[in-house]
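Hi R.,

Here's the chain you asked about this morning:
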Amino acid sequence: MTDSRIARPRAVAKRIQQKIESGEIGTGSKLPSQRDLALEYGVSRASLREAITHLESTGLLHTEAGRGTFVRTTHPPQKPASSMDPLRQYSNLDLCQFRHMMEGQAARLAAMRIRDEDITTLERNLHVFRNQIRALDVHEASSTDLEFHNIIVRISGVQLFMDLHESFRSMLIQMIELPQKVYNRAWEPVIEHERILEALKRRDPDEARYYMQSHIVRSAERLGILLAGDVV
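And here is the predicted structure, written out as tokens:
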């Protein structure tokens, strides 16, 4: 029997894709708000966000921090079916260990390859992130948070890292989003992102890896997912 937690986002993603392919939603168009789409399809916002992040991983949609989600004007060719299903379920421990290893190395490489324009992009992302956290808009903040990590992975220049990170996007964003019980710790990720960015600005590979891995461990502990010893 198909797990409804997986089937529901799949069905929504398929319906949105059909609207785009039929021209009902034009290329370059901005999607309605997540609240409106969740009401339209009769699903929770969590399921709606998972459907959207799945479509982002296929290249059909892209989200701009502070602006919304848009249909891409050009779509990449469909990738062949793979055993690495973006909606496949992995444990939080699996995801944290994956991030600790891969994103730590990505940050190290990014520190050696980062350009001034990349720093500007990360600073812009951090500015948006701060404002969203101040407003306790954790839904939008989680997308901005993940985009900060995506940018660093892209800067690393390793295509396999980029593909893997995108493959797990929907699960990562669910794990990143702060539950209400820890809203009082919402500013901690901002400070941790600031430290990562400062290390990247200094072009210090070891420091960038250290602060990235520290951030991932602290995130896991903050959300009560696991202890630091379980990750490292």
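One quick note: The mean pLDDT is 82.

Cheers,
M.
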